[in-house]
Amino acid sequence: MKSSVIANVVEHDLCIGCGLCAALCPQDVLSMQWNRYGEYNPVEMTPCTTECGLCAKVCPFSDTGENEDTIGEQLYGAVPGIRHRPETGYYLASYVGYSEEHRPTSASGGMATWLLEALLTEGVVDHVICVAPTGDPERLFAYQVFDTPEDVRTGAGSAYYPVEMSGVIRHVLETPGRYAVTGLPCFLKAIRLAQQRNKKLRERIVVTVGLVCGQLKSRHFTEYIAARAGVQGDVAGVRYRGKSPDHPASNFYFSFTAADGEEHKIFWSEGIAEAWTNRWFTPEACNYCDDVFAECADVTCMDAWLPEYSRDSRGTNLLLVRSPAVREVLERGQGVRLDPIPVKRVIQSQAGVVAVKRRHLAYRLYLDRDVPEKRVVPERPKNPLLRQEVVLKERMRVLSRDRWGAGERDAEHLREAIGPDLWRLGAGRQISKIITFPVRTLRYIRRKVGGNNHG
């Protein structure tokens, strides 16, 4: 039986497109290319003759026997003061804050960009690897290597667009130095698996900065939202997290530049949320991810989706720190507002993502057990509305991915086709509200009565 990542992962539609397999292949037979769904996959350019299996061993969705718990324990288990929670993995400290200087050009509070610049300025690293715009309509964003704080700022902001790491990982292998790398949970897991098997990567990648992730999106997601915003033809550029002082941080906008130079803007509430939360254009691999907080990262950055912060349109960050060295850099920080925050509040801020990667994942695993073992136990939820939600969102995900991938790229027609499932999902939510309203009311009364009795 072949041990290659093509046979074990790609052919089962479980590839996330990180590119570590292509970067480390001893024979250099793999190349990262677009598939018909607008996602990156490795492709065999010449036949593999050795079948060494290294490509599968560094794949985050391959059955390697390693998971985020085992990797995290190796990396952080012996750190003095380290703690562990099943939602977050290991953590040393948790903070809330922002960089006033970096806030305006960042997706949130600017802390990730500030930290990367600080790592360079303080000499902790020589190079930073992060995602930045390319100016190429065929590949709007890509991983790039930066050596100065000014260059790092070109990568500020979110990129809801496929990227792959084969080129920058080859650069690390070929070019000595100390590197900081940013990435989503699955990408950083792949790096950690690769570091276990490659000494140069262990020595040269010295800081990893993770981002909380609920799902990736294909390039077709950007095309669809651009069409909803009024773009006709190709997208020349996009800014994914524009901020408006008239809206809370949660109602950000995407700004597209069309091929003719015209700008088009669309807010989260005007159609982005519908496609995002219902998992349109989401790769199959995301259905089987159980890492919310980038557990293999030295520090994880995220939005502060908490009521006291999300109303501030300028954006605020939460950070989970696992590395003592990174914590020292943060606590020396100049020009940042950073305060401790209980880890339970960090978890609450990502409640929606935690639900998807725990309760929803449990049901997906119950329905399809032919995937590598996860840390979530397969289970059929008792709540029929939750079961319906998972099934309907999966149908929408498949339909959006298949139709756009087959060349049917009409945003209105796609939404019409998905409409019946959207209606069913909305009806289910209304039923859920009706069912739970008496329970919520009773709890509220009990709290008030209890408070008055103790007053």
How would you describe this protein?
- By secondary structure, the protein is of the alpha+beta class.
- It has a domain of 282 residues.
- It has 17 helices and 15 strands.
- An eight-stranded mixed beta sheet has the order 7-6-8-9-13-14-5-15, sandwiched between helices.
Tell me the helix content. Answer: 40-55%
The main sheet comes to: 8 strands, mixed
End-to-end Cα distance = 71 Å
Low-confidence stretches: none
Q: What general form does the structure show?
A: globular
Radius of gyration: 22 Å
Number of helices: 17
Number of strands: 15
Mean pLDDT: 93
- The percentage of residues in β strands lies in 15-25%
Strand order of the largest sheet: 7-6-8-9-13-14-5-15
Helix/strand-derived category reads: alpha+beta
InterPro entries: 4Fe4S_Fe-S-bd, 4Fe4S_Fe_S_CS, Co_F420_Hydgase/DH_bsu_N, FRHB/FDHB/HCAR-like, FrhB_FdhB_C
Cofactor: FAD
Pfam family, one: FrhB_FdhB_C
Keywords: Iron, Iron-sulfur, Metal-binding, Oxidoreductase
Brief summary:
The chain is an alpha+beta fold and 455 residues long. The chain has helices at 5-8, 20-24, 54-57, 68-76, 111-121, 149-152, 166-174, 185-197, 199-204, 219-228, 272-277, 307-310, 324-331, 343-349, 351-367, 384-405, 411-453, and strands spanning 30-34, 40-44, 83-85, 89-91, 93-99, 127-136, 139-146, 179-183, 205-211, 235-242, 253-258, 263-267, 299-303, 317-321, 336-340. Helices cover 40% and strands 19% of the residues.
